[in-house]
Amino acid sequence: MARVRDPIPVPTECPYCSGQVSIMHHRDIYDGRVFSDWPWMYVCDHCGARVGMHPFTNIPLGTLADEATRVARKNCKPAFERLWQRGGMSRSDAYAWLAGKLGLTAAQCHWGLFDIETCHRARDLCAGLMGARP
Length: 134
Hints:
Blueprint: E1 21-25, H1 26-29, E2 40-44, E3 50-52, H2 67-86, H3 91-102, H4 116-132
Antiparallel strand pairs: 1-2, 2-3
């Protein structure tokens, strides 16, 4: 738990439908498949919004996400990954740059916290910076 820098609160109510949130195992969500050594997630009992947990803790990896938000996070984050992997800056420096551009604190600048609009803004900022590089 000490490795989690900015833990966020455990979700108890879904922000999308106000449903109750439970802990579920990957196999109950992904047709019997397990995707990590810590296969536990928070899941809304009503609409299915979900978020994983930091390994061997009950700390959420981010905020609950419905399908559209999960898709936006998954599809937009690669622009950020390219930025720090090929753009000549460390991952920490890339997050600091992105936080400044988005008007967020370092603790708020995490893909697991972004809504759809913020995902798109972050993707466009990262892609724009990479496009400006030779």
